[in-house]
Amino acid sequence: MTAGMLRFGFCGSGRFAADCLSIIADKTRPEWVITNAPRPSGRGLKLQDTPVFEKAEELGLKVRTTEKISADQETLEWIEKDLPDLILVIDFGHMIKEPLLSMARLGCINIHPSLLPSYRGSAPVQRALMDGLEVTGVTIFRLDEGMDSGPVLAQVPVTIDVEDDTPSLLKKTCAAGCEKLLEYLLEIPSEDWVFVPQSEAGISTAPKIDKSEGKIDWDAGSLELYNRIRALADAPGTFCSHAGKRLRIHKAAPVSVSGVPGELVAISDGFPVIACGEGSLKLLRVQPEGKNVRGADEWLRGSRMKLGDRLE
Questions:
Q1: Which of 266, 253, 257, 258 shows the shortest CA–CA distance to 305?
Q2: Do the strands 152-159 and 238-242 form a parallel or antiparallel pair, or are they unpaired?
Q3: Which CATH superfamily is domain 211-303 in?
Q4: Mean pLDDT calculated for residue range 137-158
Q5: How far apart are CA 39 and CA 49, in angstroms?
Q6: What's the pLDDT at 39?
Q7: What DSSP state is assigned to residue 21?
Q8: d(Cα 139, Cα 154) in Å, to the nearest integer?
Q9: SS3 annotation, 268-296
C-alpha cells in the first residue's frame, strides 16, 4: 500500500488537537473523528462541545463523541466495522488501551510537543517554558500502554524564542509536528516507516499544572518568574495580591533593578517595576480581581500604589 492511500481516523479533544486536525485535514481528510462528549462549562454550567468537535463540524467531517473510549464498546465496534490503517490520537485526554491500541494495522499514532523521552505527560510545553529551555521539539510516536513511552517514528526540534509563551509555542509545535506527520501520510510508504524504541536515558515528566503553581513568589529570581508567567499566564493564570485582592499578571518583562522582593522599586514609562529575589519584573498586562485585562500602567494609576509599597 502506498503512503497516499493510507486511511486514518482521528481521536482528539483540546485546542492543540483541533489545530492539528485543521492542518492535517487541509491535505488529507480523516475517515472519521472521535472526541469527548460535551461537558458542563462556565458559570452557567452549559454543555460545551470540544474544540475538536467544533472543528470537525466546520470541516464537514464525520464525528462521534464518547465519555470513555476504552469502556465504550459501541464505539469500539463502530471503529472496527470500517477500520482505517492507523488512528491519530492527539490531545485526547483518554488512556488508550487494548483492543484499540492494536486495532489498526499501523496502531495509534500521537503528536507530542516535546522531544521524548523528555517531558512525558500532559503539560510538556508549559514545563519546558518554566524550565527556561531554548529548544524543545515534537515527537511522532506509536502509543503503547505506558505514558508517552511508545516507539518513535520521527522527531523535529523547535526553537523557543524569548518572547514565546504557551499559546505561541503550542502553535509552533503543532505546525512542526503536522508537517512531519503529513510527510509520512502522503509521501513515505508505510512499509518504510521505522519505529525506534525510546531511550532509557533522559526520561523526565511533565505533570498536569496545578492552579497553585500560578502563585507568584517574589523571593524567586526575575527570570524564573518571567518563565513562569509566559508558561502559565494563559491558563491556569499567574497571580499575586494587592490590597487583599487578587491581581492576575498576564505579561511582564525581566529588568535589572534590585530591591526588597515584592516592592514597587521603580516606575518605567508609567509601568510598575516590582523587585524579585534577584532583579525585578516590569509588569505590562494585569487583571485586577473582578475586572478586565488592562495595561499595567493604567492599573497603576488607579491603584494608589506608590514607591515602596508591596505586592504579596
A1: 266
A2: unpaired
A3: Formyl transferase, C-terminal domain (3.10.25.10)
A4: 97
A5: 7
A6: 83
A7: H
A8: 6
A9: ECCEEEEECCECEEEEEEEEECCCCCEEH
Residue type, 176: A
Can you read off the three cell numbers belonging to residue 63? 464525528
Q: How far is CA 108 from CA 92, 96, 137, 138, 143, in A?
A: 12, 9, 20, 16, 6
Q: Where are the domains of the chain?
A: 3-192, 211-303
Contact criterion met (CB below 8 Å) for 168 and 82? no
H or E stretch including 9? strand 8-12
CATH architecture of 3-192: 3-Layer(aba) Sandwich (3.40)
Q: How far apart are CA 29 and CA 174, in angstroms?
A: 17
d(CA 12, CA 61): 13
H/E stretch holding 179: helix 166-186
* Element of type H or E holding 156: strand 152-159
* Residue 238: how many other CB atoms lie within 10 Å: 22
Give the separation between CA 203 and CA 198, rounded to whole angstroms. 9
Say whether pTM exceeds 0.85: yes
Burial 271-285, CB ≥16 within 10 A → b, else e = bbbbbbebbbbbbbb
What distance lies between CA 176 and its chain's CA centroid?
A: 14
The answer, yes or no, to whether residue 13 has pLDDT greater than 80, is: yes
pLDDT score of 2: 41
Beta-carbon neighbour count of residue 143 at 10 Å?
23
